Every structure is written in C-alpha cells, then in structure tokens.
Amino acid sequence: MKNKLKPLVKEAKKTTQKAIQLSLVAQLKDITAKFAVGSKKLDKQIQKEAKKLAKKFAKDIKIDTATLVKVDDQPKALEAPKVAPAKTKTTAEPVVKKTTAKTAAL
C-alpha cells in the first residue's frame, strides 16, 4: 500500500509546486507591469525566483493520502475509440475540363 502511495504523493506535490509557481509568476508580472516596463531579463529572474520559492512552499505541504487512495482505487471507465468523421463534400461541384484548340476542333 505504501509503495503505491509514494509516487502519488510525489506527483501531487509536483502539481502543487507547479500551480504555486504559475500563480507567483502571474502575480509578479502584473505588479511589475504597473511600475515598470517589462523586460526579458526581469521575466527570467521572476521565473527563476518563483520556481525556488514554490519549491520551498511545496516541501512543507502535507498531502492527504486518503483522498489519493480513493481517487486511485476507482476503476477507470473504458473510453470508446475516437473516430474522425469521414470527409465528404457538402456541395457537388462539376468538374470542368479545360479544352485546347486541338480538342475543340475535333
């Protein structure tokens, strides 16, 4: 049981970390846009520091394993294979052959 939970908890922490990072980046970019013109250097630094901070926050987050177990134990519904609709022409256009001087004379 514990062996199954470990990867689920790790994945949940990564997802949480990514969500925190994206939230921090969006908010910091909004704030910096109000006070100064954005630059690539500033955006790069915001990305870097937000990643570090999100990693620190995600480390301290406790994941509720009971909810992970409930989600994992549910059988996955079989999905019907998706079939692309057949391509059909909606309007029938007559095919016009180009005639040359030789074929017109015959």
TrEMBL record:
Region annotation (Disordered) ranges: 83-106
Recorded superkingdom: Bacteria
Name used for this protein in its record: Uncharacterized protein
Lineage: Bacteria, Pseudomonadati, Bacteroidota, Sphingobacteriia, Sphingobacteriales
